[in-house]
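Researcher: We plan to redesign the surface later, but first we want a full-length starting point. Tokens attached.
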């Protein structure tokens, strides 16, 4: 009788440990989906020191998803739903700070970043490829 109680307790303890390990190994946070695309500025891929594409949840339920823009292309994983898109590309300007490091300036108009008019919808069962053709023209 003692052996069967020990056996049941051992099986229960091992099963509980396996469950905790399995729960601990799961991905935390919301599901993210593959997103990719291209950006042009006045018909050309932007040439910049740093370029970022940011997908922002307008309801602020999720953190922003960010990708580097290289050669006019980007790729990232983003949460599902409607997103406000901000695109920033910086160049070094002639001025420097006290340490001699050049200042950088965003040359993309505010309507594509700070005051962005760009919106997309990220969907679970879609290829989520987006093209952004940015111009100086309003």
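Model: Full-length starting sequence:
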């Amino acid at each position: 009788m003692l052996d069967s109680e020990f056996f049941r307790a051992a099986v229960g303890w091992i099963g509980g440990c396996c469950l905790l390990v399995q729960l601990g190994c799961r991905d935390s946070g919301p599901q993210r989906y593959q997103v990719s695309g291209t950006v042009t500025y006045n018909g050309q891929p932007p040439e910049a020191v740093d370029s970022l594409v940011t997908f922002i949840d307008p309801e602020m339920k999720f953190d922003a998803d960010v990708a580097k823009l290289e050669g006019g292309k980007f790729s990232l994983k983003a949460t599902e739903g409607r997103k406000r898109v901000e695109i920033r590309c910086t160049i070094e300007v002639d001025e420097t700070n006290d340490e001699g490091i050049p200042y950088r300036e965003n040359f993309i108009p505010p309507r594509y970043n700070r005051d962005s008019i760009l919106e997309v919808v990220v969907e679970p069962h879609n290829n989520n490829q987006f093209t952004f053709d940015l111009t100086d023209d309003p």
